[in-house]
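Appendix B. One record, verbatim.
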Amino acid sequence: MPIDSDAPLPSYVSGSLPGVETVMNHRIRVDGSRWQKALADRGLPALEGALADPGLTFVSRSDVFELGAREIAPENAFQLLYYSLAWGLGRKARNLPKRLDGLAEDPERTAELLVDAWTAVRSREPAEDIYSILATPKGKARIPQFGPAFSTKFLYFAQGPTVPPRYVILDKVVATNLHEVWPGAPKAGWYPDTYERYCAFMSRWADLATDELHGERTVRADEIEYAVFHRR
């Protein structure tokens, strides 16, 4: 069934709005040394920034957003991709070798798709059109091993830190936790028009949350995503 676009804002969201600072400081521990070796073994572009240092480090949403503000270029697109993946995979980074094998199959094609998607994000094009750059009409990844959930992470961070996000992360946890308003939601992949409806839905809930605060502040769509992801 499609997501219920008219569903009211539930109390578990309105009662646990994190605020922008909490969202931006949401950080994940990452093993930079493991990433460096895995990339070098496959001849992929090297890491820059904090993950180029040895050992464990923390990567926050804010850190990745800063990469989204860079000049759109292939070398920067790879850095944005790496950090989006690293933040999403965390310290254990399950299936990291397999995922990087997928990127290494055709680095030039990977860079082309990432740059096209990033450019579309910067132009604020419709979510369906942007998502379609990285996913087929049936929701299959165009970049091998770079699945739909990670595609939405890349699109989210590609917006940079200065604009309210309209393209929001969608993954298995979020889809599962929306079960009342999205019964039977796909958990592993989404059609482009489904992602469009999801983003519109999360923005609508953000507007409803803003109304409940009576003008105290504007709630962002990623605050809604954060609250849904951390639902208890």
